C-alpha cells in the first residue's frame, strides 16, 4: 500500500476514535446531570400556558369509615395520602382509572427516588376494590410490610404501601 493510503487510514481511525470518546463523554454527562428538556416549537410559538404544579395539601385527620380490615371500595375511598417520603402530606384524589407509580414522568404519581423504578407499581380498581400491583420493580413494593409478587393485592383503608422511600395509604 502506498503511504498516502496508510496516512488516510490512520487519520480516519483517529477521527472514528474521537467520535467514540465524545460519545462516551456525552453519555456519562447525560447520566450524571440529566438531559435538558426543551419546549416543543408549537408550544413556544403559541404561547400556551404551562400548567402550575399541584399544591401540596396537608393530610386530613385520619377518619377511617367502615370496619377495620374491610376492603377499600370506590364509595369509601377518595384519596391517596403520602404519609412519608419526599412528598409527605400530598393528597391525590382517586378516580376510576388505574394510576402508575414510578420515577418516569409518564407516571400518575411521580416519585423521584433512587429506590424507585421508572414504572414501579400500579394502583388499580378491580370491581369495587382497590389493588396494588408491583411492575417487576428492582426494590419491590411493600403492602403492610410484606413484599408483593407480580399479582395484584387488595388494599384495605389504612394499609400502608411502601414504594422506594415513600409510604402512602388510602383514606376516605
| N/C terminus separation | 82 Å
Poorly predicted spans: 48-75
Would you count the extended β strands for me? 11
Rounded to the nearest angstrom, the radius of gyration is 24 Å
In short:
It contains two helices and eleven strands; from the N terminus they run H-H-E-E-E-E-E-E-E-E-E-E-E. By secondary structure, it is an alpha+beta fold.
Question: Mind explaining what this structure looks like?
Answer:
With 172 residues, this protein is of the alpha+beta class. It has two helices and eleven strands. A hairpin with a 2-residue loop joins strand 10 and strand 11. The longest helix is centred in the first third of the chain and has 31 residues, at 3-33. The radius of gyration is 24 Å and the shape is elongated. The relative contact order is 0.15. Mean pLDDT is 78; it is low at 48-75.
